[in-house]
Design a protein that fits this description.
CATH topology of the largest domain: Butyryl-CoA Dehydrogenase, subunit A, domain 3
Oligomer: single chain
Bound molecules: flavin-adenine dinucleotide
Helix content: 40-55%
Number of helices: 11
Radius of gyration: 22 Å
Mean pLDDT: 94
CATH architecture of the largest domain: Up-down Bundle
Strand content: 5-15%
CATH class of the largest domain: Mainly Alpha
Number of strands: 10
Length: 388
């Protein structure tokens, strides 16, 4: 067993790191909770420049504008984007919609949808969750009725992240209401400016804003259907696996830890430095142990994906463990910094750019890619072989 990256992968990491170090000036860094329009458009431009080097979709096949490398390289890119605090640009196109089109799309769909994603020009959001369908997603109610050479969409989607800048929504809708619930669902890509689509903002605790997205007699051509009609559930689940490694999420937290460590080594305190205090030292050491474990779990998932394996239980373990470590770090860091930890990034006396205040809010997000309970169910069933 070799816990190491290849020479080429290490070189790729160094190149991406050098590029981002050069390109990211501090005013565009998104410390937790400091999202802005200006930073978003800076990131979009940065993504275009990553794309020019074929790095943005480095794990896609070359024929679709990718770099022809594996999921490990794609994860190295995610790691660097997170560590350098590039504001989140939707990854739905790169991670879900694109791979679904590569696998199930027609030649026309590939020609139309893939190049703009690979060039960093198209933003996607994901329309899966509904007001009455979250964990039990297959009970979704949104209808897509065939009408001549069109489908007519009616219903609504909840928690549509990245909706504000999205050109397309990648969604699931029911095409056969009489079929067993997993079998009557289809997958679509719909332009967000299609008449009949409207949104209601849903601001999150971490400062990001998602939406409820309404579809009122939205007419789309049949060519929006991805893959086979009524097979959308199975198509979508295949590509959901791409969400799993979670390196970007880890790296954002790791960066904050590294900043707190540097601060502890240099900030004057009682005639020495802050990090000489036994309490601070032990707290940092305990957090470090957790972060190392989290990183190893994320890389294991990425490695499995790079080999074409489907990391179900492993991904849930990494997600759950990471969520707990992030929360633990936020609590320990708050105790280390005391009242200074509560200062927000706008405050120029806040240690490490006020990152701990934002991290504390971010760590309350425990249910992005499935709730904690659902991940435990996956581990019990698929990891431990327990009955449903
Ligand atoms: C930050 C964030 C971003 C998101 N982005 C998107 C997005 O872009 N697109 C999108 O489609 N969705 C998105 N979601 C939605 C997310 O996928 C859902 O919140 C999630 O699937 C849970 O669904 P729900 O909120 O309807 O909760 P429910 O499914 O209603 O669950 C409510 C509670 O019951 C528990 N529960 C439910 N079923 C079980 C069970 N079988 N066993 C044990 N406990 C159970 C849950 O764990 C939870 O605590 C996002 C959510 C968040 C928080």
């Amino acid at each position: 067993m070799r816990f190491t990256f290849s020479q080429e992968q290490q070189q790729f990491r160094q190149e991406v790191c050098a590029f981002l170090r050069e390109e990211m000036s501090p005013e565009y860094e998104t410390v937790f909770g400091t999202f802005s329009e200006e930073k978003y458009w800076f990131s979009r431009d940065l993504f275009r420049r990553l794309a020019e080097r074929r790095w943005l979709t480095v794990g896609w096949p070359e024929e679709y504008g990718g770099g022809g490398k594996t999921f490990l390289e794609q994860s190295i890119l995610d790691e660097q984007i997170g560590y350098h605090r590039v504001q989140r640009v939707g990854i739905t196109g790169i991670n879900f919609a694109g791979p679904a089109i590569i696998k199930f799309g027609t030649p026309e769909q590939k020609a139309r949808y893939l190049p703009p994603i690979a060039r960093g020009e198209a933003e996607y959001c994901q329309g899966f969750t509904e007001p009455d369908a979250g964990s039990d997603l297959a009970s979704l109610q949104m209808r897509a009725e065939a009408d001549g050479d069109q489908y007519v969409l009616n219903g609504s989607k909840m928690f549509t992240s990245y909706y504000a800048h999205a050109d397309f929504i990648y969604l699931l809708a029911r095409t056969d209401p009489d079929a067993p619930k997993h079998r009557g669902i289809s997958l679509f890509i719909v332009e967000m400016d299609t008449p009949g689509i409207s949104t209601r903002p849903l601001p999150y605790i971490n400062g990001e804003v998602a939406a409820q997205t309404f579809f009122d007699n939205v007419r789309v051509p049949r060519t929006c259907l991805v893959g086979q009609e009524n097979q959308g559930w199975y198509h979508a689940m295949t590509t959901l696996d791409y969400e799993r490694a979670g390196l970007e999420r880890y790296a954002r937290v790791r960066r904050t830890f590294d900043d707190l460590l540097s601060f502890s080594k240099s900030a004057p305190y009682r005639g020495g430095v802050f990090g000489k205090d036994p309490l601070v030292r032990h707290k940092l050491a305990k957090v470090k142990v957790g972060l190392e474990g989290w990183a190893a779990l994320c890389w294991k998932v990425a490695w499995m994906q790079s080999r074409g394996e489907v990391p179900n239980a492993e991904a849930s373990i990494a997600f759950l463990y990471g969520t707990k470590q992030r929360l633990y770090f936020a609590q320990e860091a708050m105790e280390i910094l005391g009242k200074f930890g509560t200062l927000t990034p706008e405050c120029d006396t806040a240690p490490i750019q006020g990152a701990i205040e934002g991290l504390s809010r971010e760590s309350m997000h425990m249910h992005g890619a499935g709730t904690m309970e659902i991940h435990r169910n996956i581990i019990a069933q698929r990891g431990l072989g327990l009955p449903r």
